[in-house]
Amino acid sequence: MKIGLVDSGIGLLAAAAAVRRLRADADLVLASDPDGMPWGPRSADDVTERALACARAAADRGVDGLIVACNTASVHALPALRDAFEPGLPVVGTVPAVKPAAAAHRSVAIWATPATTGSAYQRDLIAAHGNGALVTEVPCPGLADAVQAADDAAIDAAVAAAAALTPVGVSAVVLGCTHYELVADRIAAAVPGAELHGSADAVAAQALRRIPGGPGGGTLEVVLSGRPAGLPAVALAYKEGVALAVTPATA
């Protein structure tokens, strides 16, 4: 089994690490776009073009399926990616975990990028899966960029700013950007008592259900804006990156 993961940057580490936990033998191809990031401020057409380029770079390495490990790309590019690769290669997108959070809690905050916060996509998601819960949309300017740079001071400042906008006593926080899952411990500390809901585990499980393939070697390949490369040094600032750096993987 060989799975490609697509994102603008290191946000894909969370889903990749989740796949590795479930299937240590799965071969992984991490295809990101450091030359074009961040994707959030880009137009839908531009995001789609860049996501397709990353997906093609992964597909060229013989993957059995693709994970779009990016909320922005899933919003804008998922239909085009499925048109381009399915049914030959299953394509699994990433959706913020609003449904499970609202099913279990009456007060929910969604932490997301400023571009996603208040968007028609997120509002539709709340309308469809909010389950009558009180849902607060919390913009997190600078947090994804700070995580991408592993800038501790900037991460702490962005988390503190978002926590200040989060209602006191909220019982669940949905992590609406894959980068945020890499600093889930800091977010949990800033919103004590709230249960965090990320997407990585559910995305990994869905991918393993849909993507065929027998035992692999637990290898890792990295493609940065179409160029073969090693795992970026910044990835090693996070436990997910450290776990992925062990290749071949061990069960």
From TrEMBL:
Gene3D superfamilies reported for this sequence: 3.40.50.1860
Which species does the entry assign this protein to? Actinacidiphila guanduensis
Keyword Isomerase found: yes
Q: Which GO terms describe its molecular function?
A: glutamate racemase activity
**Protein name, please?**
Glutamate racemase
Q: What domain of life?
A: Bacteria
Keyword Isomerase present in the record's keywords: the answer is yes
Record-linked Pfam families: Asp_Glu_race
